Predict the 3D structure of the following.
Amino acid sequence: MPERIVISPVTRIEGHAKVSIYVGDGGEIISAQFHVVEFRGFEKMCEGRPFHEMPGLMSRICGICPVSHVLASSKAGDAILGVGAPAAAEKQRRLINCAQVLQSHALSFFHLSAPDLLLGMDAAPETRNVFGLADQEPEMARRGIRLRQFGQRIIELLGGKRIHPAWGTPGGVLKVLTTAERDEIAAWIPESLAAVEMAISRFKSILDNFQDEIENMGDFPSLFLGTVTEQGELEFYDGVIRIVDSEGNIVADGLDPRRYSTYLGEASQEWSYMKFPYYKPLGYPGGMYRVGPLARLNVASATGTMRADRELREFKQRSQGMVCQSFYYHLARLIEMLHCVERIEELMFDPELLGQDVRVNAGQNRREGVGSCEAPRGTLFHHYHVDADGLIKKANLLIATAQNNLAINRSVEQTAQRFITFSRLSEGMLNRVEAAVRCYDPCLSCSTHAIGQMPLVIEVSNRRGQLLRRLERG
Amino acid sequence: MRAILIAVGNALRRDDGAAHRVLQLLGPLPNVVVRDVMQLTPEMAEDIAAAEVVVVIDADVRPGETFLRPLQAEPQARTPVGHAMRPEEVVALAENLYGFRGRAYVCHVPGRDFSEGESLTPEAEANARAAAQLLRAMLG
């Protein structure tokens, strides 16, 4: 009789999710689905609100990456005003985005994934957490904490608070950065560079232990999408969209993020609140693409900073150019952290960062605006339509985690098929399914615009949907 | 005495913001560091370790009066996410990673209404005042 395995809640991710694994008559894994089971409807809440309010409102979508939403929202507001932010504001926005990526990646790697990676996928669940990490690798745990503090401190200095800063605004930002604040940030840099390089070195030293996971926890061809500069380098704040395939061919380049809806579609499935974006020219689901650290490093020819470029060259050699294994999201995340610290250091020497003109005063000039940036988990788009009074008529948010939805589902299925043996189901097997999800560091609060934490449920059912086993965390 | 007071709660959920009100009422205290947060996170472990006394101030959904209880560190992760911790967990992390050996307490501030809104109920306001008085006496 076919069976179904359900993992619920998925732990150590942001939001609520459930995994269903379908088992055939012979005990073989037929298929698996990653369901997102929360819904908040943030886009609808925006309707009727003034577009000037949107950055502050949007920062409330998420407690992990509020800055990314503030930036995309502020840029959409810039477009409605028909202006660009002054140089000082742009530099501040770039700085805070690097800080956002740094602190979010530090959370993902050190707090959420390192227990699996450094203690082992089969370690006892009661030790496979931040306390286990503190016991086994206290220096790594301390450095992870400091890196996250660094990112959060920058956000606090610029935005006034670490979570939900209401600092970005259409036309610029609300505060000038002082010399003392800049100097405080600069003082963190040597320690932060050393911390990231230590983590990269440590992670690379254990990769041989995870060959099975590398090859079977999300190794499949797909498109990769990310923002690059006109020269094709890694870009987090403002650039053009590049899409490459798993052979390294550039499928599309120089795409205008403001025209995202002409090349990206959003499909729905009845079993999940999270949408399934796809690349329109290849249709659904053939247009599956990945975003985020792995995709960004695959689409970029270089990072543009010395240390990260050295790591990127080695990274690209792992799979003859295109790295298709989702397990490498972790390494890509660390390389991006290194890049962000280097970019922050560059900005410390940029006199425009301390400029006094941080906001353009302008009225509404357009009825529509799109803002995009690279959030920690991938490319983020905010799209607003406003009426003559500047009130939001319609909002569409295309979130990074949703863009990875097809790939997450593919990873879950591949992982289940490789690692799950229904007749002797173990905690380690189920943890690998969760770990496949965690590679993407999904933020379901953002992607469904849902509220709350993210426990995960795993359910095993037969082909007829009869529940046979249920595993719940949280 | 060097102490750290950590006020936890969401000020947009009415009485859940009672801890923040306690800090307002206390004002600056000598040799006391304050943190005003929505939730406890691992990053606070280092700050805690630098203090001799830590008090986590938190609203309590159970009705009653303000009270202070000693906190026992628990190095067991019970929360399913990595960015939010219980007071017992963050203090345990401060002990394990940074050698914290001070005293730790939770100050419970009971409330009644935790729905959306910014003002405290009279009960929570009274409990916040009692908490401020209690902490001033303790740290003064």
